[in-house]
Amino acid sequence: MTAADGKAVVREFVEDVLNRRNLAAMGRLLDSSVTDQLKSSLNMYLVLSAFPDLRLTVEHMIADAERVTVLSTFSGTHRAPFMGVPASGKGVTGRMAHTFRVVDGRIAECFQTYDPWGLMPQIGMVVGASDSPRAAAGAGALQPA
Fold first, then answer.
1. Given CA atoms 113, 37, 76, 122 in this order, what sign does their dihedral have?
2. Looking at the DSSP assignment, which residues form a beta bridge with residue 65?
3. Measured distance CA(58)–CA(56) in Å, rounded
4. If exposure means fewest CB atoms within 10 Å of the residue's CB, which of 13, 65, 114, 124 is most exposed?
């Protein structure tokens, strides 16, 4: 499989599954052994339910024969509870990074990262200094605004 082939699979996943909400496409785009939360339709459902107009825009895509890394921006509106925060109706934006492993035309692994500390205040969650990743375990908690 070429880097271009891997990019095409990942771009189809982003556009068809995430942006068009065609969750049925997960069956043809994800390998049966896929790891990470992409395998869980429930997790995907919870995110897309909380942000029903969520849209990812691919900013950069870098690939080799087996891995595709995507840097993207996201935007959406907080319309349902998310991580214990009631719907706020607020718009959110942020950046994400995903690294996919594509094997035989299907996504076999996905690792993602985003900035939850940047997202939570946008939906009304107050993040105090004691809530930072550097804080000692158990020191402080996220509180609704």
1. negative
2. none
3. 6
4. 65
